[in-house]
Amino acid sequence: MSRSIRLALLLIVLSGYGLRVWRLDFQELRGDEAFGYFFGQSPYAQIVADTLSLREPHPVASYFVQKAWLGVTGDSEFALRYVSAWFSVAAIALLARLGKRSGLPDGVAALSAALLATSPYVIWHAQDARMYSMSLALTLASSLAALGWLRRGTAARGVLVVLVSLLALHTHYFAVFVLVAQNAYVAVQAITHKVDLRKLVRWLGLQVAVAASYAPWLFMARRLLIAYHGNGDSPPLGEALIRSFSVLAAGEPVAPEHRTALAFVGLALALIGLGALAARRDTRDAALWFGLYLGIPLLATWYGATARPIFDERYLAAAAPPFYALVASALLAGAKYPVQAGARPAVWPRIGVAALIALFAVGASTSLVRHYTDPAYSKTRGWRQLADRLEQIPACMPVEETRLAQNYPDPTLWYYYRGPVEHLVLPPTAHGRDEASWAAAALAEEGVRWVVLVEQPAANWDADGLAHAGLGEQYAPALKTDAAGWAVTLYAAQSQALLAAETVFANGAVLMAYAVEPARAVPAGTLVVHLQWDVTEMADAPTALKVFVQLLDKQGRLATQQDQPLEWKGADAAGIASYGILLPETLTPGEYTLIAGLYRPDEDGAPRVPLRADAQQDHAVLQTVIIVPAGSCEADWATTG
Q1: Per-residue pLDDT reduced to its tens digit, 376-398
Q2: Which of 10, 186, 416, 578 has a CA positioned 20 to 30 A from the CA of residue 151?
Q3: 545 phi and psi, to 5 degrees?
């Protein structure tokens, strides 16, 4: 390569690195990233055992690498994703080298690397803490080693072929499709006598070595490979091609209505590039190489999904390098690849290619901008804000008496929530109605008095609100709120330590007793007020009234309040209603007065019901509430253990 090409490649690699680390931790982890993080926390031997026993559909190499890396760097989002970013940057340099070794001109090889460096699809996976970028780099390295061995079949190069191919297979099972493409290339070269018989036999020996070395793992993992039913779908070939070429052309952040057009652009450019390479004698081997390298993984991924729903665009990472090599060949087709030396390309094909290039550039650049800036195409779902809210809602509630529950086993929340409260999944099994009831009863028996439930749509786990139903058998829903789009409900056990109130209202309603928990609260925390009513002598229908519970500062000004319909089930403990008050984050620490009363919401002005003993008063004064600075309760927890 010339000095200018080498300098261009250096700039391409550095630019690719910048695009991958820029805002690397801006978006939140998605579920698979969090799962990979927790899965890799175990000792190495346990990761292997868990992969087999839990039927994890991916091999262990990426978990091993991530575990070793995080042991040095810590487990921040940036550190988690940096492994993928690093392998993705390595892939840029590997593709430039592979393009040159396969016979592409220097400019095309460099442009291939540039397209890979700026690909929205590749960058998306580079900023994703999963194995796909590692698989991309290792399959590229395996291909580079294979071509190097075919050029100069030394023993050292042969060992490199075996080792890198094994690493690729231990990273992702679909790496086998790239190895199949390599063998198909060698077979065609042998048929055309470009690979002699002795070298063919030695090549087959390398493949036998790979297969024999990988066989023990395949034997151990045979059950999970057979039993895995997939987490994708089984599209027809046409739909699979549209999804494949649209995502390779413009990445994940593509509006559905634009996918077909972008797929056409991507496929057309790939075919033009393939034709441009095949039209020249000195690049026909490159056409064969990249055609097989792209076609076999794409078709094999689709065909494998016809038997079970395992098609997913992220499994196409290994097909990205040949796609960009072919697109690069198309971009330079008019200037560099006339069919005959010295011939001038016709004008109309060049105009057509130019139009496709423009559409390709617009689609890719738009997707790249969306990836970095548009929340509609983001992984972010509000996990950080939700975790902060879950730190605040149960603040000052005794840790041993509090639980956090999630109605779907998504591990992402537990990456972000690092507080002291234990968590559980409710129902503990998919659609487990009885299990949800038993789990809630077990919590009550353990003395758990507060359960904060985080709810998300979970048709495949809790489609019928089983978490709410189970908790409702043991607890009262004291507070319902929203945290960054998540529905959060605080369930409270009925307090047994009621204080007498005996406040009679003019309409005959009697506030018999109350309790306030916790004993003190913090700004942005929760205060739960339990009220016991007797409405047997009340003139109004209970449904016509609402209860207000208010917190007043020393000057009598309203600090916050909660209003709920009047609930009454009898004069026993079952008649206690619980009212959660979400305290403002701006609340000033100090003493506040808690009051409660009744009002008629359907009448003009929503008038309050006065007290019978004093018509000038319209509320019962319950007690003084102490608001302490944020963090005070957590300090007490640490002290008490």
Answers
A1: 888 888 999 999 999 999 999 99
A2: 10
A3: -125, 155
